[in-house]
Design a protein that fits this description.
alpha/beta, globular, 14% strand, 8-stranded parallel sheet, 10 helices, 38% helix
């Protein structure tokens, strides 16, 4: 698929999910945005006012943004016609144009769309085709490992989609999959080593984090109709339980960022990196807004330095 030339930017994208004033006060958002960690943002379809505010500020800073469709911006044929869906999207798009931020809007993004109940491969194809034909912008998808491998998490769900089907990929311009629990460091925990040995029994080419990601990225690329689709990676930027039986920390996240940067720069068609995640969610997720918070006496200063180094490196390519 040929993507309109004006929708390309002259730098590789670098950002983090949920750095969006929908989740913060404008003062908090401005403080983080002015730190200039990133050049690419995910703004939310469900927050028109806050997204317009952020888009104007980011455009002045020379940044670009995707429109994250989340749930409300996804097409479900069981609930509405495609025409009705496009009418909803057009109301939001018209506001982007009215507020003169259309040029810094790259396209629409989707996070694990086939895991959303009742959203089928056909729905995804119809949606991405209609959006591309109507607006000429890009379609960026982060799939889950389940959608790539065909192993769904809830086997009791009769409506669960097993796998991304090839026909549905035709209008994807940017793609990747997320998985945050594998350690890029060569000397990890015994539990992490056991995990790689277990994977190796089924996938002989997997023996460490890089070969794990390479295996499933190759599987995803093979399924893509658009062989020029840009490849994105998703480094860990929050505290999560890993396959090594420990929680990710600053060193783990630095290794993730460096490991994916190296992989990205080896790609034929690199798109960028989008870290997960910036927002700390009450009860179960501690993320960058805490670790880089202005009032945190234990800020991740080494990780912060690595963010700047990564952004500089990607923008030089």
């Amino acid at each position: 698929m040929e993507i309109a030339k004006e929708n390309y930017r002259d730098f590789l994208g670098f950002g983090a999910y949920s750095l969006d004033p929908r989740w913060y006060s404008f003062d908090e958002f401005n403080w983080f945005a002015d730190k200039n960690y990133f050049n690419t943002y995910m703004l939310n379809y469900e927050g028109l006012g806050t997204s317009i505010y952020a888009a104007k500020k980011l455009q002045d800073k020379g940044c670009q943004f995707w429109l994250a469709t989340a749930n409300a911006g996804i097409y479900f044929s069981r609930k509405e016609t495609l025409s009705e869906y496009m009418e909803r999207i057009d109301k939001f798009v018209s506001k982007l144009k009215e507020n003169e931020v259309w040029d810094s809007f790259i396209g629409f993004s989707y996070d694990e769309p086939l895991l959303k109940k009742y959203h089928t491969n056909q729905d995804f194809y119809d949606m991405t085709k209609a959006l591309y034909e109507q607006y000429g912008k890009r379609n960026f998808v982060c799939f889950s490992g389940q959608e790539v491998s065909g192993k769904k998490g809830n086997w009791n769900d009769p409506d669960g989609t097993l796998i991304l089907e090839r026909f549905a990929t035709e209008y994807i311009s940017d793609v990747g999959f997320d998985s945050y629990g594998y350690d890029f460091r060569k000397e990890s925990s015994p539990a992490m080593e056991r995990r790689f040995k277990t994977l190796n029994e089924t996938y002989p080419d997997i023996h460490d984090a890089e070969s794990y990601y390479k295996h499933f990225y190759n599987m995803l690329k093979d399924r893509m109709i658009n062989k020029d689709a840009k490849i994105w990676y998703f480094p860990c930027m929050y505290e999560v339980n890993t396959w090594g039986a420990f929680k990710s920390d600053e060193d783990y996240c630095i290794a993730h960022l460096k490991g994916f940067t190296d992989m990205l720069l080896k790609e034929k068609n690199p798109g960028g990196m989008m870290g997960y995640t910036f927002k700390s969610w009450s009860g179960n997720t501690v993320a960058l807004d805490h670790f880089l918070g202005r009032n945190n006496p234990n800020r991740w200063e080494r990780f912060e330095e690595e963010l700047y180094n990564t952004k500089k490196l990607l923008e030089a390519k």
